[in-house]
Every structure is written in structure tokens, then in C-alpha cells.
Amino acid sequence: MSINNYDLNRDVINTEVLSKTNYEITSATAAQERNINSFVMEATSTGFLVNAKGTTTSTPLSAAFRNISNYFFSSSAANRIPVAQNNVATTGISRVITVGRTTVDDAILSGSVTGTFSFGTQANKVIVDQPEQSISGAVGRKGNLVERASLLDPDIPLNVVGTVFYDTGTMVFHGGSQSRETNFLIDSASGFVFGPGATAGNVAINNISFISLNMLKRSVFFTRAFNQEFNYSNNPTAIANASLGSISSNLTGNPTSFITTVGLYNSDNELLAVAKTAPPVKKDFDTEKVFAVRLQY
Q1: Pair (280, 244) in one structural domain
Q2: What's the pLDDT tens digit per position in 31-50?
Q3: How far is CA 188 from each of CA 46, 118, 177, 216, 288, rounded to the nearest angstrom?
Q4: Count of domains in the chain?
């Protein structure tokens, strides 16, 4: 085995490839398939929960509330979070949609979220995201969830109903307007389920769409075997005298090796990656070889 050092400016190329995937969820089954969950969270839960499949359980929601309150809002009061439209008043109830990492990949694309909701018998309330211009906290990129009609009509006050956290795929609906019939803070018994149309006494997610981002990083390491290098076998059978390190005489005249493996090591001589050649590559003193080792992560 021989070791060559890389010149990072000459021998290594780093690139990034961004891929996007469109999702539209229109039913509880589709949500379940994509590991997307919806639930009501309360600071003082009485054991009410409706998940994405519409199943009621007795799991308390206060633990979920405290987790979201402290992690996303850095709330000093574990049983309260700010109301979305003013951030002065607080609430002990909200509704949440979480997108699993297998679906969200690296993040939700800002500006791509659109959802249609029903509040009781009031249907077709469209909510979209409005990204922040800069990152303002440790939770990464986020944006407001707002009623689309209030963005399009200057006569309607901006109706902010929640917050989307793009990097984690979390949407927290912690606001709304009673006069606009978009109140996500109504009693937990109204639930929060995926399904078509409007249901009396229920908050329904008729559909929600977004674009997920997947960032692939690729590196190419150009590994060079110059004419004076890598011409002898590493096979133990080539050693004639282990104590002297001499090789068999029949390999000294015009030695030829066959390169089968390229290993990448860090500065501490720790093996990080292994590449195999197919087929083995013949190497002798009359030839030089260049291997392009491609890593994707």
C-alpha cells in the first residue's frame, strides 16, 4: 500500500446538487403514507388527540405542548405560546402539522406551502406561507402562515394564523381570526384531521401542498498513480523475506501490479472511504493512471 497526499486546489472538486419534490396531501391515507401527522396540543390536556388517520387516543398533549413551546418559541412559560397574529397575547392551545424527515428531506422550500382548511361548516379557507427575510433564531428558517385572501385584498387586515419552521417541517397554527372564521385556537374537541370538505364542529385539513428540498453534496478526488508508484503487489505472497522486506526475484525485473482498490484517508491516517475498480487496472513503470473517486453524501 502506498499513500499519496491530495492537493485540495488541484485534485478535489466539490459540488452541490439541489433536487426538489412536490407533495400534495389530500387525505388521511396520503398523510400517513408520507409520515405526516396532525394533532391538537394543549397545555393542560384532558387526553384528547386526533391523529392524521382520524384516530382518537387518550395520549395527553401537554408533553407535546411543552416540547414545542420551549424548542420553537423559547417560551419562559411552558404552558403558553404567543398568539400568531400579535405575539403579545398567549395561548395554551394550538394545532400542529409535522412532516417526517423521510418526506421533508433537508427542508421545506420557503414560499411553497399552500393549504385549504375547513372550520365547522366554513370551507375553502386557503392558508399560505410568507417567509421571513432573514434567519432570526436558533430554530433556523421560518415564516408566517397567513390567510391568502388577506394577502390579496388590501381591505382585509393581514390574518396571520401560525408559523412554519422550514428546516424541521413543522407547521404550528397558533392564531387566526374569529371574524374571518379562521380560528385555530378553538376548543380541542373540534380536532384537526385530514379529509375533504367541511365537517360541522371540526377543523379539517382538506389538502396541503409543499415542496421538499434535498441537497446532495458531491466530491471528486482525482487519485494519481505516477510511473514510479504502485508497481508492486501488496499481496503477502510477493514477500520473499518478511524481516528484510524483500520481494520475490521474479517480480523485480519488470514488475506489474493490478490496482483493485483506492482508499481515502484523513490527516490522522483513518480510512474514510473505499472505491473499487472494475476491472482491475494494470500498472507498471511505463504507465501512469488517474482514478476519479466520486463521493455523494
Answers
A1: yes
A2: 999 999 998 888 875 544 55
A3: 9, 15, 17, 41, 72
A4: 2
Q: What is the pLDDT of residues 243-292, one digit of tens each?
A: 655 666 556 667 788 899 999 998 888 998 999 998 999 998 899 999 99
Task: Give residue 190's pLDDT.
Answer: 77
Give the number of residues written for the chain.
297
* Lookup: cell for 224: 494519481
45-71 pLDDT, tens digit per residue, is 554 455 444 555 555 557 778 888 888
Rounded-to-integer distance, Cα 78 and Cα 65, Å: 8
- For residue 74, the enclosing domain spans 19-214
**Domain's final residue, options 214, 236, 271:** 214
- 8 within some domain: no
Whose CA is closest to 62, among 90, 43, 40? 43
Of 214, 246, 277, the residue that ends a domain is 214
**For residue 262, what is its C-alpha cell?**
483506492
Identify the residue whose cell numbers are 466539490.
14
